[in-house]
Amino acid sequence: MLQWKPKRLLGVGVGVGAILLILALDAVLLGTVTRRPLSFSSFIMGLLVALSLLALAIIIYQIYGLVSLKYLLGRDSITISWARRQEIIPLAAIESITPLAEQSGAMVKRGFHYPGYNIGRGRDEEGRDLLSYSNGRLSDELLITTTAVSYLISPAKSTGFLSAVRARQRLGPARKLEQVRMEGGLAGLPVWRDWTALALVSLAAVANAGLFAYIAFRYPSLPEIVPLLSEAGQVTLIGAREELFELPVIGLVVVLVNTTLGFALHRQERLLTYALGAIAFLVQILIWSAAMSAIR
Asked: How many CB atoms are located within 10 Å of the residue 166 CB?
C-alpha cells in the first residue's frame, strides 16, 4: 500500500500548548485550595481540576489520533487510519474526489477542531454525512464523496495522492470490498453506545460528586467533633469533621471499581454491567443517608 500523511506540526503544537495551559491553571487552582480553609469554593476548584483531567485525557487522545493519522492507498481501496480506527473506502464506491478549494457549496464541520486539526462529523453541500480526518488546511484538503458518506482528508502531497487514486480507478476493481469502519481499543468498546449503562454510571457519579459538594458546603459550620455512626438514636462513634469526607471517598471507590468491571464485562455480560452500575448508585444513596444522619 502507498501511504500519505498530513502536515501535523501546527495541530500537534496547538494541542501541546493547550495541555500546558491546562496544567498551569491546575497548578494555580491546587495552590489556592491548599492555602484556603476547606469550603464549598474549595470543592468547586477541586472539581474543576478533576474535570480538567478528563479534558487532558481527551486532548492527549486526539493528539495521538493526529500523530497516527495516515491515508493508505491500496489496489481497490482508500483506508483512513486514525488512532485505533480505520475507515475503508472502496474505490468503486467513490463518486468523486476533488480538492475542497474547488467546491462552491458550504461544508458544515463539527466535532473536535482547532488550528491545524479537524476531526469530527458534519454535513456536505448535498446533506450527506461528512467525516473529517483533516489538518484543516484548505490547500491540502480533498473531499471524497460516496453515495452515503463524504470524507475530508488532507494528505501532505494532495496532488500526488489524487493522481495515484485516479490511476488506480482507471485499472478497475479487482475485488469487491465493503465500505466500513473498524474501531479497536477503548474507543471501540460497544458500551459507549449503550445509553442505559452510561446513564447508570452518570447517576452514580453525579450522586457522589453531590455528596462531596454538600459536605464541603456544610463543613465550615460543623463542630470540630461530629457523630459518625448512630444506632437506635444513640451515637456510637464520633470523630473529627474531616472524617466525614471518608464517606464520599468510599462511594468514589465503588463507582470507579464497578465502572471499570462493568465496562470490561459489557461485551460478554451486558446485564452484569447494568447490575454493577445500579449497585454503585444504590451505594451512593446509602452513603448519602449515613452522611445526612451525621450532619444535622
From this structure: 11
How does strand 112-114 pair with strand 180-183?
unpaired
Of the chain, the end-to-end C-alpha distance in Å amounts to 70
Q: In DSSP terms, which residues pair with 73 in a beta bridge? A: 2, 78
Q: What is the separation of C-alpha 192 from the centre of its chain, rounded to a whole number of angstroms? A: 10
pLDDT digits (tens, 9 = 90+) for 123-169: 887 888 899 999 988 888 999 999 889 999 999 988 999 999 999 98
Q: How far is CA 94 from CA 1, 70, 75, in A?
A: 18, 19, 14
CA count, 13 A, side-chain hemisphere, 81: 13
pTM of the model: 0.84
In sequence order, what are the residues at sequence separation of 6 or more whose Cβ sits closer than 8 angstroms to the Cβ of residue 40? 213, 216, 217, 219
Burial 8-34 (b: 16+ CB within 10 A, else e): beebeebbeebeeebeeebeebeeebe
Contact status, residue 168 vs residue 75, Cβ threshold 8 Å = yes
